[in-house]
Amino acid sequence: MYFQASGGRMAAVEHQQKKKHKASLIARVGMPSATTFFKKVEPSQEEYDLAVQEGVFAYMLTWKLDKLKFTCARTKCEAIVSNVLVPWSTTLVTEDLDQVEFVSLSIDASNDGHVKLLPIVVRYCKIYDGNTSVETKQLDFVELKVETAEEIAAEVLVVIQKCNLENKVVAFSADNTNANFGGLNRLGRVNVHTKVKNALQWNGQNRPNMAKTALDMIPLDVEYLLTKIFGYFHIFTVRVERLKSFRKFVGQEYHNILGHSHVYCLSMLPALERVLKMYVPLKSFFLLKTNALLSCEQCLKIH
Q: Under CATH, to which class is 100-208 assigned?
């Protein structure tokens, strides 16, 4: 409502006496509340099914579950994720963390354009109905203003305190950079590991190369072994078909042997897992080869 400055209070009084203003007041009083348009009955099974589909759709599953049609655009998906899925998943993780005694934390900052992002991940062992599983959950996903040891450690400590993990953290994992574990000039003081360790009064030791050192203790060259096994079967159809026959003999599903290249460091684990899945057929295959190939079988005996 707008009145000229010269009209003042008299203009407002005159406006209240007009028929149009009185009619608007009467119409507003007689208008029902918005809550009267809300459904008050229990939803039907079909509506429950529809809600489930919308939730699954918001969870980024793209396949069609059944013939029910629905619309779930950006606004509804955002509401489902923010008000349903996030609180529900947070509750599940919180309940798990209340039950466990020990956890490990992992971080790995990465860039999305000019934005520096820091996911904070927790790993713990869960026992449910007699079954044991190793769970990996994301606790937070924060944006860093500057990538310094002080800021990263502060974000990690905020998550630890929020989830009540002060007395449960037994390990800290991150890439081997100076900001995370310190360098020659930092002398073990100005880095994330030391700051988190001191804040928690934790006796954990800095072992950024522990996995690499442990791998060097294995009495064989795993990378060389994977390369040789892959090369032996890669382009030889006869050898692959014979290996498949051993697979049938031991009653195991066949899986192609995966290759590994030192250029792609992340390919070693999948290649090793595939060899372990095919361990029994591979062992039988090489045991029946000539004495020249028995060395390959001996290499497969990974203790």
A: alpha beta
Q: 191-247, pLDDT tens digit by residue? A: 888 888 888 887 655 555 555 566 667 777 788 888 888 888 888 888 888 888 877
* C-alpha separations of 82 from 33, 48, 75, 87, 90 in Å: 27, 19, 11, 7, 11
Cα distances (Å, whole numbers) of residue 230 to 142, 154, 244, 257, 284:
41, 46, 15, 6, 17
pTM for the whole structure: 0.50
- In the chain, DSSP finds a helix count (H) and a strand count (E) of 14, 5
Q: Are strands 169-173 and 103-107 parallel, antiparallel or unpaired?
A: parallel
Token readout for 22 is 């009185």
Longest dimension (CA), the chain: 113
Based on its alpha-carbon atoms, the radius of gyration of the chain, rounded to whole angstroms, reads 32
Q: Distance between CA 201 and CA 123 in Å, rounded?
A: 20
For the chain, what are the domain ranges? Answer: 45-95, 100-208, 218-300
